[in-house]
């Protein structure tokens, strides 16, 4: 069973930066892809960013420029760097892993989430 565990959440001030990390216990094969999701209070879960096996990335349009997804294959670790934090970034952030299908990452595993709280 693949284990996905997020870390790095916490409280931060608006305008600041935060880096979330996610450890994936194993990568099945070269089609493995990873992604970040978030769920704000009272909102539905939404996709934030994804990283495909060829290194290509995609972002929710409104977050592009402030969010950066990256991975360290040697450590089986995925990162999400958030700059210029906004109060509306407050959410539970989830890391997920799965297999690429065309331009998409089809999720099979998701972590328990890490809380991010942004205050003014």
**Shape type:** globular
Cα-to-Cα separation, first versus last residue: 40 Å
- What is the radius of gyration? 14 Å
Percent in strands: over 45%
- Mean pLDDT, to the nearest integer, reads 94
Element order: H for helix, E for strand: EEEEEEEEEEE
Helix percent band? under 10%
- Number of helical segments with 4 or more residues: 0
Beta strand count: 11
Low-confidence region ranges? none
Output the structural class: mainly beta
**Biggest beta sheet summary:** 7 strands, mixed
Structural features, described:
- The chain has 120 residues and is mostly beta strands.
- The protein has no helices and eleven strands.
- Strand 5 (46-51) and strand 6 form a beta hairpin.
- The radius of gyration is 14 Å and the shape is globular.
- The N and C termini lie far apart (40 Å).
How do the strands and helices of this protein lay out in sequence?
Layout: E1 4-7, E2 10-13, E3 18-24, E4 32-39, E5 46-51, E6 57-59, E7 67-72, E8 77-82, E9 91-101, E10 104-110, E11 114-119
Parallel strand pairs: 2-11
Antiparallel strand pairs: 1-3, 3-8, 4-5, 4-9, 5-6, 7-8, 9-10, 9-11
Task: List the keywords.
mainly beta; 7-stranded mixed beta sheet
């Amino acid at each position: 069973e693949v284990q996905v565990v997020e870390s790095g959440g916490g409280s931060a001030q608006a305008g600041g930066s935060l880096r979330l990390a996610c450890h994936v216990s194993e990568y099945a094969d070269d089609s493995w892809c990873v992604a970040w999701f978030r769920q704000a209070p009272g909102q539905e879960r939404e996709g934030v960013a994804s990283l495909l096996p060829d290194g290509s990335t995609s972002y929710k349009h409104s977050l592009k420029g402030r969010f950066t997804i990256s991975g360290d294959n040697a450590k089986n670790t995925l990162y999400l760097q958030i700059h210029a934090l906004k109060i509306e970034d407050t959410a539970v952030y989830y890391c997920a892993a799965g297999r690429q299908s065309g331009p998409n990452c089809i999720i099979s595993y998701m972590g328990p989430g890490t809380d991010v709280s942004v205050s003014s």
